[in-house]
Sequence to fold (959 residues):
Amino acid sequence: MATTVAGHPHAAPVAAHAEKTGLWSWITTVDHKRIGILYGVTAFVFFLIGGIEALLIRIQLGAPDNTFLSPELYNQLFTMHGTTMIFLAVMPLSAMFFNYLIPLMIGARDVAFPRLNAFSYWVFLIGGLFMNASFLFGAAPNQGWFGYANLTSRQYSPGLNVDFWTIGLQILGIASLAAAVNFFVTIVNLRCRGMTLMRMPMFVWMSFITQILLLLAFPVITVALILLMFDRAFGTTFFVPAAGGDPLLWQHLFWIFGHPEVYILILPAFGIVSEILPVFSRKPLFGYAAMVFSGAFIAFLGFGVWSHHMFAVHMGPFADAVFALGTMLIAIPTGVKIFNWLGTVWGGSLRLTTPMYFALGFIAMFIIGGLSGVMHSVAPHDLQQTDTYFIVAHFHYVLFGGSIFSLTAGAYYWFPKMFGRILDERLGKVHFWLMFVGFNLTFFPMHFLGLNGMPRRVYTYPAGLGFEFWNQVETAGSFVLAASFLVFLYNIFVRSKRTTAADPWDGATLEWSIPSPPQEWNFAELPTVHGRDPLWEAKRARGGSLPEPPRVSGAGIHLPNPSYWPLVTAIGASTVLIGIMVGFPWVSIAGGVVLFVGVYAWAFEPAH
Amino acid sequence: MPLGKVSLRRVTGRAWAPVFAALALAGCAENYPQTTLLPRGDFARLLHDVFQTTVWWALVVFVLVEGLLLFAIFRYRGRPGDAEPEQTHGNTTLEIVWTAIPAFILAMIAVPTVKTIFATYEDPGPEALHIDVIGHQWWWEFRYPEYGIVTAGELHVPVGRTVRLNMSAADVLHSFWVPQFAAKRDVFPNRPTHLWFKAEVAGNFPGQCAEFCGIQHGRMAHRIVAHEPAEFEAWVAKMRRPRPAPTDTATPPAAGIDSAQLATARKVLPTCAGCHAFSATDTTRGRIGPNLADVGSRSFIAAGWLENTDENLARWLRTPQAVKEGVLMPNLGLTDEQVTALVAYLRAYHQ
Fold:
């Protein structure tokens, strides 16, 4: 199998690996770092697309009774904004960090299944392109990212819109599941010597828990989507009430996936912040074990609270009470995390770099999102809050104030490692303040609007309900927010400076012990660790910084061979599903043939 | 109400100036007719009480935790050349404390929450006025079995008597929202849901559908009209008054419509009757369009958002698809003369 990463320094010498370049080398790459960069670049482009969708939404809502967007286009845009940000931006941006960092942090040469990793990326790319291709047909999904039945039935949504969504999400689900298996096995099996579970960097721990969530949650949405696909393509009636089906079944299935999905989006962000805060506070993460167990507890509870999205469906007092209390319980481990981050900062010697700004901003914003989350758990009052802008405010505080702030912190922090270039600090802080101010201007007033009666998912609102002022503020804020990302792009493409420093931040984890950017095999010699902050311990033992690690030839290190079969297999698997949507069986059959050939060739291809 | 939260957040953002402006603007819930923050019914009041408890606790936590964060950032700001700070790894006592304190606060919220959950599910009793609420794409139908009447777009309720809403949907999911008196409940085509409330004040309030239900979800509004009891009886009596059927050949003359207009309207009305009922006591179910018995006197048309002026009514009749893209009423290609006659007819006979 593909467990090729256990390089032996004493193995028979082979030719030194030349640096691979060119498009073909990217198409056939199985290197986790390149795949990570592919994930990152692709997801960032989708993030920008989702951001443009958000700006169009904000322009439309900037004035009452606005006709800038038609109702149909507005519904397509808010559906695609949500779907894009969740499945095509935040999840794959996390996947970028999983890919790039997990092997480096656990001292491995690659992930457990490098070709499966490439397959995941290609499937994700195809799924994302497919979903967005719907715009070219004027048939982008228009039923909301939650796709509540029975609006999604053929009767009420006769167009291809819902099919693009159903098939697109299934394609993306394949990518997520394959990647989750891969990272799970990687973390379990490929840790270097001395890296016990309780010595893993917190980012690896949170990633590990995220993979478990993915493995348990994605099958549920897959089942739901298959049922919906059968309803739409083959005339079954799982969700059709006229034929005895039940739309509520969809809601349960969707949220049994959907709530863990929330933690899939935030746990990696927790992990990133937990790496950055200690480094720039110059002291270890406070309460490591409490951080691990609170993360695991959050994930565990995350499977038992799905119906708090459904308090308005009239489930009965016992169900409402159980789900309300379960939801409140989640606040406890979340609070533990926040207090331990404070404990990490407390008594430190803070270096207020850009990554640190974003990490601290994350804490400040996530507290607000956490508190409004507790307000939703008050089930009776959720009957007022649900489906209003109060909810929109809440989840942008956790997903943007939380995940995006943290992912941005991570981008500044690991940029030098990934690209051998360091981002400009002053511009980074301009980016931070624009984002911080723009974010709060855009999303804080949504609390007022929601409590004062503005529902979600409305393409416009009439004058006279009092919604005008705050909507104008929000629209203005959204442009400040957009400007902050222009600064980010400018920083990346114009102002970043070359650096070859292996350890520009005085890091604690293994990725800072190797050259920037790392060589294909990561570690010339696989490391052995003796504690939680191996690099700090090494530096302390030496009484100062370590010498720059040399770039070596890599002779004698086994690496997996490049392969295009993952791409072929990805095309085959996606085509099978797309064939079901277009209703031509021969498309699916052709896809099945390609899939079979791809898997067959993959299986018999020499791995290295 | 999260008013203090505004100011605190802004303080933490070190922007003092907008604090008071924001407070002033956010504070006036009176400026928001659809607000949830000014409960005017018993059900809404139950929810509001437990919400206020929650907000106060949230405020305390917010101030403390954001305060600690800001304090730490300023207090422990390092300078180049600083010695390495003390390498602490954790503290079990602290972990226990900051697990216990949030648990205590949550218990303070959980107890009233559970109590209120059970209170909201209590049956309002046999005295309640039952009203059937049916969600359609994209309008609300209200049926009063006690009086044998049907209306649409405007939920009329008496002040001081509990009403029990028995809710369902004709097509897809919707959510019926009465922010001033109660809250919202989803409605389904296949499972009944309920809501109850007792209005405390009379008035005409806005509400709207809260579950995404298709292209015109954004324009699926309704009005809640609370009457003093005597006024409510008068409204019921008015609704029960017989009205000319659209197919009547002997419609009596009425003020505001001349005989030529009446003749023109009569030619078109059978088309309308394909989807609409014109009598409030016509309780036939399953019509595609709303009951028009009192459309002439409703405050709003086109599902509670278009002011009921002659001009708007005419615009709607002429090109409903231009007013509300995707609505189930087609453009009927009526002439100006026909439209004017229909407006006059609806005003004359369907007040």
